[in-house]
């Protein structure tokens, strides 16, 4: 049975997802317009966050808030805050690619205790609560059981528009790709982590992330039996914006490759 907080999160994610799906159907038409779809998608993103914020803060007005669009707001309860990405995979959404998600996490005393990642285009709802396992549409999920790197698929985000982590990522790829069955770049960190949790990917790494990109996915992977660490062990994932996530059988070998000096 889901807790009251998780039920509130699921309701908000589904409500925002319905709004985004409706907007997503308009993107194809907007793509061919002179102005393009960019302004429309920005409005869709902000509206999704408004819906989520209204539901979550309406139900728990004393909790803090950290959202991609509206930033950080302190709550009367300093130990709890919502961490929200209303539309993870905005570029996919903008281009009419059905791979994007609503991501909502609840943090308590610095730890993620509840998580929802909703892939509305595919109607896939990933949920987790600390100590209670991870689920996809109410079916328990586990990380993969693969033991060989050469049989495994990994995911990452390849930096765009001149972002500073590109050289490091290229070096990662040059070392990792010859050892694996492939690397995927699908453009939505929350779903990359959800896919590790559900065994679709065997591992995932990325740098330059924001808390709302990974907060919910961290708990999904952990509750599905996987390991999550920052790329540099002395840091934290949320603070550093870097992440390694993998099944337990491959984690050490995978981490060694990514953590090798560049």
UniProtKB/TrEMBL annotation:
Its EC number is 3.1.3.25. Keywords: Hydrolase, Magnesium, Metal-binding. Pfam families: Inositol_P. It comes from the Bacteria. It catalyses: a myo-inositol phosphate + H2O = myo-inositol + phosphate. It is an enzyme of class 3 (hydrolase). The keyword S-adenosyl-L-methionine does not apply. Belongs to the inositol monophosphatase superfamily. This is Inositol-1-monophosphatase. It comes from Paracoccus sulfuroxidans.
